[in-house]
Fold each of these.
Amino acid sequence: MGQIVCFANNKGGVGKTTTAVALGYAWARIGKKVLFVDLDSQANLTAMVSPLALEDHESSIRDAFLGKKLNIEHAADHVDLVPSELSLSNFDRDTAAITGREYLLLDLLKPVKNKYDYIIIDCPPALGLITYNALIASDHLVMVATPDGLAYQGMVMVANLYADVKSNPRLNPDLKLSGVIISKYERNKLSDMYVEKIKGEMGDAFIEPVLSKATKVAQAGSFNQNIYDYDPSGKVTKQYLEISKVLAKRISKR
Ligand SMILES: Nc1ncnc2c1ncn2[C@@H]1O[C@H](COP(=O)(O)OP(=O)(O)OP(=O)(O)O)[C@@H](O)[C@H]1O
Ligand SMILES: [Mg+2]
């Protein structure tokens, strides 16, 4: 059974996309079939994963939401992608007349779910209708946060939305909070305080190791390079691999 995993935080810049891409590639490297679905109009994941320039994609997830065939592109070994585009930012307006528009993603992914081991959804830094679609379509939610107050608050907002979606039998009662990942950690008093706070509050969902902040990660992202090729023996690269194993184990227990 394919497992659908979405990565979310209401706060921007906390490492959602970078972490989602690194974990997806970790799974692809061991032969799992991975589909990335970019739900952010910034299209950062699309840029990081696809060899194509952003303007060269035939169609995007936005077109699929509006009734076109879902465009699944081959991106790399064992890696496929549904790209995003800037105009996805009009999603609310575009879909205003569609009834049941919170189920659009669920319906799009149903027919392809079992072609993949993992479908990885990258959410925008917002809790609007797009993230709502992601939570309704997913089996697993992974929250990513940097260890600071604003990212913590953004994560709590996602946790509240998760509770709403899970408690409503018409939405997604089977959704599981399968991971809380801390990213861009640098040792200082504030970071350590938030790591402990998040760990304490999130209990079993908390995933170790914590991901360190490293210039190589930001560089790899900027050059649209895969971290496993860019910095194969890096500390954070090893942390991503470790987390990919922990998360895979949790997901398979479902
Ligand atoms: N472990 C890390 N060490 C250093 N830099 C990192 C790390 N993880 C991510 N970054 C960098 O931090 C920035 C934000 O990361 P990313 O785009 O993954 O965050 P995001 O939460 O997806 O942001 P947005 O909310 O805008 O979609 C990027 O420049 C990225 O390269
Ligand atoms: Mg992002």
Amino acid sequence: MSSPDLQLARRTERLKSSLVRDILAAAARPGMISFAGGLPAADLMPQLPLEATAAPALYQYGTSEGEPAFRTAVAHWIGETGLQVTPDQVLALAGSQQGLDFAAKLLIDEGTPLLCEGPTYVAALQVFQLFGADIVCAPLGAEGPDLVALEHLLATKRPRAAYLIPCFQNPGGACYSAAARVAVAELFDRYNVILIEDEPYRSVALDVDHPMTPICSLLKRAPWIYLGSFSKILWPGWRMGFLAAHPALMPHLVRLKQAADLHTQRPGQAAVAHWLNSDTRGRDLERLRAGYRVRRDAMQAALERHFGAIADWQMPRGGLFFWLKLRGELQATRAMLDRALEQGVAFMPGEAFFAQPAEGHQYLRLNYSRATPEEMESGLATLARCIRTAQDLQSRPQPA
Ligand SMILES: Cc1ncc(COP(=O)(O)O)c(C=O)c1O
């Protein structure tokens, strides 16, 4: 069939396929060991309070802002982090990804400078680039951004907004120190940068000994949008997330919600509100974290065995990923993906997480929440072999 002559919006030229979703499709093949996605562990997910979703009234249209019970429960939940918001400042979302879409629509015109961490979340890059952001990246260490580089970027590039993932960053695993949070807030206030703070992994804190105060709560002047998700703690298929925002931004965000999908599904809001108000929540999260600790430690041990000589990394203190930097000069990790998939192992190459993909050549992201210890052992052995083979091929003298 010949393809029709499509007249599409100019921005579609910037609409890239998400590498994550492509790899996830390959990773779903039978027998594949996948370290690629960010899927939570099914056996550790809490029991869903389905009884809360049964009232027929929940199947009628609802309000764009969200159910009052959901907004109230989420406002309390956010309050526990140290960010005090009223229910009026909460908007129910179809996953926090929807909040990224709204933030992009609200803040980005073609060429708008936007500050991100380098590396950053791949699907955030996808939507920011679709709307034409001119992305500048602040280099990120284990405890937050390089503050000198950050201030230089703020002063020279004058970004309208910044997108940060301060708790167990995806993909790098960074968790901002208390001091970094204060310093970043001061800089954003000084340069009046709107903060988009994204926190899907806050509740997957495995061993952190400092307060993880949201940076939004430390701002005195700069407006902010705070994003949260239930995907990693209460099943992602529900597509339940939320945002809270500075009062000046809320009316715009509510209109974007109306224009996007009228409102978030009501049974899911009822289930989440029920879980948030229940006394099982604390136990559910403790069980989840305990299970993840075991898996994280198993992955660390398997990585030491198979990657100790070829890569460097820091053990994540939360979140769902290891972020490895391969030693030595190497072909891009993206180029190794096909061979690894052929051998039955999926991973995420580092290129996907940078606005300038070449900056990610030496990196790979590995999820630890899904594989069994046996799969970790054999999958990482296979992956390390693929990398060694690539290194051997590369170091062999080329025929003259
Ligand atoms: C940093 C980050 N933000 C947002 C999301 C999207 O989460 P949700 O399932 O709530 O849309 C993810 C999912 O992996 C993520 O890692």
